[in-house]
Amino acid sequence: MHPRVSVVMPVLNEARHLADSVAMVLGQDWPGPLELVLALGPSTDGTDEIAARLAAADPRVRTVPNPSGRTPDGLNAAIGVAGGEVIARVDAHAEIPVDYLSTAVATLEETGADNVGGIMDAVGVSPLERAIACAMKSPLGVGGSRFHVGGGAGESDTVYLGVFRRAALERVGGYDPHFARAQDWEMNHRIRTSGGRVWFTPELVVTYRPRSSLQALADQYFNYGRWRRVVARLHRGTANVRYLAPPTMVAGTLAATALGVVWRPAWVVPAGYAAAVTVGGWMISKGEDPAVRVRVPAAIATMHWSWGIGFITSPSSLSRGLPGEG
Questions:
Q1: What is the pLDDT of residues 209-221, one digit of tens each?
Q2: DSSP letters for 127-196
């Protein structure tokens, strides 16, 4: 007998994508019972009206309010009313293949894992979006996380989105509402430290749409960095080399640039970084149009610097209320 699967989807100002995202969930080849719970934040673009029409058209779709509009609150609210033994997180702008749920549930059963996920396949349309996608799928841009760059199946620190055993979510208390960002990594950490397993499989590929401007990309990665610092404060010893590389680069490059005012050889550091990003950007974008390739170095640098500055400047006030924090 197939387990009941509940897909939970936090929604905020997703009028452009919501109908397509819902159709992808309802069109899954999953042979067992399925429901979709939309956690509706305070949207201003007509999202709620679209959600109401979708719920009226298919009894498998239901909605739950998420007054704060924050992702962890929406996920917890949806999980709270969901009835499935398996809980799958899907974002309203993600594009999942038709066999996503059946593959994920089969992987849960085969591996005994508590959470499985796959590849966040960044796919852009405009030249800048395609450049950002190149950066997001390269170790030069995002480090070696398998959910970004691919790799063999196996246990992982975290995965993209996630398909969970409900029992595991209940064991760790769901998403921590404190984390506006990095809530996936933080909860997967708690799953692992409670004795559970998080499993990556390259068979699960989800299409992700990158930001459409460098400013939006900078805001995204700045918040990633500042909230990853909060995770590091809460879970001591989790800030590994990959996470410390951007703030170290920012601090070192700024220090060398300042030193270069009185000792010019120090300028080799910022010049070397610029050269590495430029050459590396061109190398990882082979096969792309020139209009894309010329933008890749800027995308990589934006991600590095925004993440690093966010990590360095993350205020201690973001940690208030966490265990062991004032």
A1: 999 999 999 999 9
A2: HHHHHHHHHHTSHHHHTT-HHHH---SEE-S--EEEEEEHHHHHHHTSS-TT-SSSHHHHHHHHHHHTT-
Cα–Cα distance measured from residue 7 to residue 310, given in angstroms and rounded to the nearest whole number: 32
Q: Give 64's strand partners.
A: 39
In sequence order, which ranges of 194-240 are alpha helices (DSSP H)? 214-234
Lowest-confidence pick of 31-40, 65-74, 144-153: 144-153
Distance of CA 1 to the CA centre of its chain: 32
- Where does CATH 3.90.550.10 sit in the chain? 1-93
Rounded to whole angstroms, what are the CA distances from 324 to 62, 255, 320?
38, 32, 9
The pTM for the full model equals: 0.91
Phi, psi of 9, rounded to the nearest 5 degrees: -135, 110
For residues 185 and 228, the answer to whether their CB atoms sit within 8 Å is yes
Locate 92 and state its tokens.
């309203």
CA–CA dist 22, 92 (Å, integer): 8
From residue 158, give the alpha-carbon distance in Å to each of 6, 105, 212: 21, 17, 26
Per-residue pLDDT reduced to its tens digit, 238-284: 777 778 899 999 999 999 999 999 999 999 999 999 999 999 999 99
Phi and psi at residue 141, in whole multiples of 5°?
A: -90, -40
| H or E element in which residue 18 lies | helix 18-26
| Mean of all residue pLDDT scores within the chain | 94
Protein fold of 1-93: Spore Coat Polysaccharide Biosynthesis Protein SpsA; Chain A (3.90.550)
Nearest residue to 190 via CA among 222, 213, 168, 216: 168
Cα–Cα distance measured from residue 326 to residue 321, given in angstroms and rounded to the nearest whole number: 7
How many CA atoms, within 13 angstroms, populate the side-chain half-sphere of residue 173?
Answer: 8
Whether 167 shows a pLDDT value over 90: the answer reads yes
- Distance between start and end Cα atoms, the chain: 49
Give me the sheet containing 5-11, strands edge to edge.
61-65, 34-40, 5-11, 86-89, 160-165, 115-122, 198-208, 154-155
